[in-house]
Write a structure and sequence with these properties.
Radius of gyration: 19 Å
Number of helices: 13
Order of helices and strands: HHHHHHHHHHHHH
Structural class: mainly alpha
Distance between the termini: 62 Å
């Protein structure tokens, strides 16, 4: 019975996380982590550390704790020579470095991920590397490279039918193009919102609404603020502190345009 619980703990937590029930997911993750440590299953320990850090601590905005977990997971994978899990952990490590403003460190992790995926012909991992590298380039002001990377990631994500990459690419590309091509950017954000609703992903629905609110806020402040307020309600329900912090300044900007 104990081994059955251990083997179920991680997938069960993943199911909760996919439906945005983060608290229950975290409880199962923490129980699985303790059990795998007792059993000495280092590979499973690394996977749970990644999931707990990236899917829970990251969303909650506890970046330092998430980073510690991801770095520990990377060290375990390196010691074991576990390439497949290492790739997943590098996704989390690169993304965390990015949102913490450590752009050069993020690019180092993501370029390592890209090389690893190209060597092992792991196309899903390559798609994640591309979209996060695009985010990093956008933050660094390299708009032309960001656009090329987003477009490559979106094409690959659609071919692989990888919804997370597609959503991430659509939102990132929409935000990148919002000043140069507002209509095109709005269409991209609309596609992301429709896909998020289809997949019943509340987190990505909130992020899509933020993109829509930012894009249309310039000409139609009231409509933009409506989208942003709806996103805030979603993030408050999820206790997604990082997304809340990013959304509130955009709401203030939209409201000031109405006034």
């Amino acid at each position: 019975l104990f081994l059955t619980f251990v083997n179920m703990g991680n997938p069960l937590a993943g199911c909760f996380l996919e439906t945005d029930a983060l608290d229950r997911g975290a409880q199962h993750m923490e129980a699985a982590l303790e059990a795998f440590r007792i059993l000495g299953d280092r590979r499973a320990e690394a996977r749970v550390l990644h999931n707990l850090g990236y899917s829970v601590r990251f969303v909650r905005g506890d970046f330092r704790a998430a980073l510690r977990m991801e770095e520990e997971a990377v060290r375990i994978c390196e010691a074991l020579g576990d390439v497949s899990t290492l790739g997943v952990c590098l996704i989390g490590l690169g993304h965390l470095r990015l949102v913490m403003g450590q752009h050069e460190e993020a690019m180092v992790a993501l370029e390592r991920l890209l090389r690893l995926c190209e060597e092992w012909q792991a196309e899903p991992g390559r798609a994640y590397a591309l979209v996060l590298m695009a985010d990093t380039c956008r933050e660094q002001g390299d708009r032309s490279r960001a656009r090329l990377l987003y477009e490559e990631a979106l094409t690959l994500g659609e071919r692989l039918e990888e919804p997370t990459v597609r959503l991430h690419s659509l939102i990132g590309l929409a935000l990148l193009l919002r000043r140069d091509d507002a209509a095109g950017a709005r269409a991209l954000a609309g596609r992301a919102l429709a896909l998020a609703q289809q997949l019943k992903s509340e987190w990505f629905r909130g992020r899509s609404l933020v993109a829509l609110g930012v894009i249309i806020g310039g000409g139609q402040g009231e409509d933009g603020a409506t989208h942003l307020l709806e996103a805030v309600h979603i993030f408050e329900h999820l206790r997604a502190q990082y997304d809340l912090a990013r959304a509130h300044p955009d709401i203030r900007d939209c409201v000031s345009r109405i006034d």
